Batch of 3 targets.
Target 1
Amino acid sequence: LQVMGAGVIAGFGLWGSMFPIDTIKSKVQADSLSKPQFKGTLDCLKRSLAVEGHAGLWRGVTAALWRAIPVNAAIFVAVEGTRQLLADTEDTVDQFVANVSGSSNT
């Protein structure tokens, strides 16, 4: 549970710090190529603030935070599980490599 909790906190930290930037990035990506609404990233930011205010940069953050709970918890569990598996099997892998390569450095 500790690893899962760390993953959730990391996910909240990521989205809490990056969501406004991600919002602007998404608007620029979704902009028309033939008749663009924005001249660039800063223009998109200025116009979004003028039309929607600061709240517009955070629209949808609740869904992102809810999604971060299972996603980041699972990522942390997978990484820690893999790390532990590799640590537990390191000697076996080293022996296998030594046998295949013909050396006996173990």
Target 2
Amino acid sequence: QRRVRVSSGINAEYGGRPMLDIQCHKLIAYSGIAVSLCLIYLLFNPSSIVAAALYSAIVSVHGLWFCEVGFILLSPFENDFWKKDSAAHSMLANVFFCWTFIGVVGVMSGVAVVMDKHYNKYPSDRTRSRHIEMNGLLDSE
């Protein structure tokens, strides 16, 4: 009888690359796909502030993740913290990606609050009249 040896490694289908390397590159690919989808959404809705904010957030996450992957996979320090075949370190890379996303959303939300506070001090006539009309409609009921 002929026996077929089956590879037991999870990264056998990726040419023997370390698990951490595979996970980091998957996350780069996912963020790249998200950038492409946001760009398509922005192209179909050019006047949407939500589309522009979403696109800038995703591009920021993508760029920051490129920098983080550079430090994770090619550490410039002598004592490399990251173990390339460790499942725990692969999950830690996922956590860093999520915290990067949360940080970008937090910074963008902070900028939005500051801009709202700054520009709503002196509302334009159109905004003020719309606000007065809405208050008049609510008071008449």
Target 3
Amino acid sequence: RVREAVVSTQSTGVYPWGNAYERNRMNIWQGKFPKENKGKDGHIGVAPVDAFKPQNTFGLFDMIGNTWEWTSTVYGVDPQTKMPQYTLRGGSYVDSVDGKFNHKADVTTRMGNTADAGSDNISFRCARDATSQDIARNKKQEL
């Protein structure tokens, strides 16, 4: 799968591109939360998926920040409704670079939500299986 190939060929960094935070690589909250998002990254709210350069050598956009990404992985069970929660990953535009409010937007960020949840900061990724040529091409780019 693409996600498995991406994980296996990427560094074990905090961000899809490595360990150092880089401005204008993701859409996150910039300002005093929740009153003021200064939009220094060019966006207040959800940004177009290709608003920032790809976040890894596979050319994938928005691996972190912008919107939470639904996965098919079960996170747990909602204690009130008893419905299964599915894992959301990557954080969104209402999250922060350091986790001082909401969530820290990085590659390890996860939370759960029920399948009936909806918000403008939750989305999903369309993907396809990675071919052996995709993986070989990516390994050459890393060298």
